[in-house]
Amino acid sequence: MRTIMCMNAKGGCGKTTMATNLATWYADDGARVALADFDPQQCALDWLKAREQYEGVPEIFGLDATQTPIRVPKDIDYLIMDAPAGTHGPVVNAMLKRTQTLLIPVLPSPIDMRTVQRFIEELLHTGQVSHDHTRIALVANRVRENTRIFHELEDFLARTGVTFLGSLRESQNYIRAAETGLGIFELAPSQVYKDVVQWDAITDWLASPKSRPAG
């Protein structure tokens, strides 16, 4: 089973958006997908409830991960995990033990950059990451290209020494997807093509051996 977690100690950076859209990416490809919501706010599970109104969309199995231990069905191909904000210390290492790949969305703001710098330093000192049991990567989220802060964020992320996969633009399509229980890949192609193409770098990396633990 492939395990991918979206995590950042900073709240409001797009962890749930990334987790729900990844879940639909794999489910639309025919995989059996579970979405585990570790956040007490349960935004990912609320999104799944909204998804129930549709017939014919691929099923995504929801897990309330605030109730431990979580029990993942045996036939699941991909477990996508939405971590809560404010996760630090031993809790981080415990969550990483079940995670092959960690994606960290970062917003273009000085506060978010300073916060994620400390979070990356914490991650690099965990046994899971330092021993290469969990691979981590960064994604710039909700960016507006050709702005100064966007270029500052790109430069900052490139200097962290952690894999930087690229950027996702600020788009109303993500809000529409969140409201309706769909993924960005399930909306009308003519509306979302600019958004979908930005996911190529993320999904290509996730499909590569570089995103998986050694051995």
Descriptive report:
- With 215 residues, the protein is an alpha/beta fold.
- It has one domain (2-210): Rossmann fold (3-Layer(aba) Sandwich), CATH 3.40.50.300.
- The chain has 9 helices and 7 strands; from the N terminus they run βαβαββαβααβαβααα.
- A 7-stranded parallel beta sheet has the order 3-2-4-1-5-6-7, sandwiched between helices.
- The protein is globular.
- 40% of the residues are buried.
- The mean pLDDT is 92.
Order of helices and strands: EHEHEEHEHHEHEHHH
Strand content: 15-25%
Which residues sit in consecutive blocks of at least 5 with pLDDT less than 50?
Answer: none
- At the fourth level of CATH, the homologous superfamily is P-loop containing nucleotide triphosphate hydrolases
> What is the CATH-assigned architecture?
3-Layer(aba) Sandwich
**Helical amount among residues, as a percent range?**
40-55%
Shape: globular
Instruction: Give the C-alpha Rg.
Output: 16 Å
Characterize the main sheet: 7 strands, parallel
Structure annotation, total helices: 9
Keywords for this entry:
215 residues, alpha/beta, Rossmann fold, seven-stranded parallel β-sheet, 40% helix, globular
Can you lay out the helices and strands and say which pair or pack?
Elements lengths: L1 E5 L8 H14 L4 E5 L5 H9 L8 E5 L13 E5 L7 H7 L4 E6 L3 H15 L2 H4 L4 E9 L4 H12 L3 E7 L2 H9 L8 H8 L3 H8 L8
Parallel strand pairs: 1-4, 1-5, 2-3, 2-4, 5-6, 6-7
